[in-house]
Amino acid sequence: MRVCYEDNHIIIVYKESGEIVQGDKTGDTPLSETVKAYIKEKYQKPGAVFLGVTHRLDRPVSGLVVFARTSKALTRLNNMFRDGEVHKTYWAIVKSLRSEERGVRSEECGVTSEEWHTLEHWLVRNEQQNKSYAYDHEVPRSKKAVLRYRVIGHSDRYSLVEVQLLTGRHHQIRCQLATIGCPIKGDLKYGAPRSNPDGSISLLSRRVEFIHPVSKELITIESPLPADPLWSSMNINR
Questions:
Q1: What are the b/e assignments for 32-42, b being 16+ CB within 10 Å?
Q2: 79-86 long-range contacts, Cβ below 8 Å, gap at least 24?
């Protein structure tokens, strides 16, 4: 576990792909328990350690996770996440759709442009499959999903996409990017041709920015890149 930010009220840590944020039916040790153990040892707390889960990342995703260390911070952060006051930026490696490849027009995915593009879909979650399906119009049980994205880098075979979530839906980034023909590398569930060797998908919770729920200071934290050499090999445009 890597701590990226810490004070009396919040702690932000880097989640490795494969880790779960909160306990589930697998019985695997969740990141929340690892963070509790860290706090208990570092501060020599005699009793139970309070730690509030404010949001989650899918198991194969890596990057920043924000936890609350006090009930005051948890209540305020929950409200901030609900009201869109916590700004999360993701990076995703997707298959390249450059105009010179396979005769595909570059504007179909926007991956050759640094301009921001907006995606709007209606997503329906299938609980049994643990998968979301996107529609271009409202359908029964659907929820509106909106994100912005732009391409900020590339390699010979892939493009590096920066994503800003404007809503928080189940598998939203994975589903919406796949819907426009840009599945995330390694994401078999959403159309990637092959898995990553470690079972991860190439999606990173890269940056988080918000006003501290107690001190009211601006907090901006950026995640390190995953150890996979592909991330560091990307030619970033900025």
A1: beebbebbeee
A2: 80/210, 80/211, 80/213, 81/54, 81/55, 81/168, 84/166, 85/210, 85/211, 86/55, 86/208, 86/209, 86/210
Q: What are phi and psi of 58, to 5 degrees?
A: -55, 150
Q: Would the CA dihedral through 121, 186, 18, 131 be positive or negative? A: positive
Q: How many CA atoms lie within 13 A of 173 on its CB side?
A: 27
Distance of CA 1 to the CA centre of its chain: 17
Do the beta carbons of residue 160 and residue 154 sit within 8 Å? Answer: yes
pTM to 2 decimal places: 0.90
DSSP 96-164: ---TTSTT--GGGTTTT--S-EEEEEEEEEETTTTEEEEESS--TT-EEEEEEEEEEEE-SSEEEEEEE
Query: What would the pLDDT profile of 18-57 be if each residue is shown by its tens digit?
Result: 999 988 888 899 999 999 999 999 999 989 999 999 999 9
d(CA 80, CA 77): 5
Q: For the chain, give me the number of helices (H) and strands (E)?
A: 4, 12
CB 121 within 8 A of CB 133: no
- 55-70 per-position pLDDT tens digit: 999 999 999 999 999 9
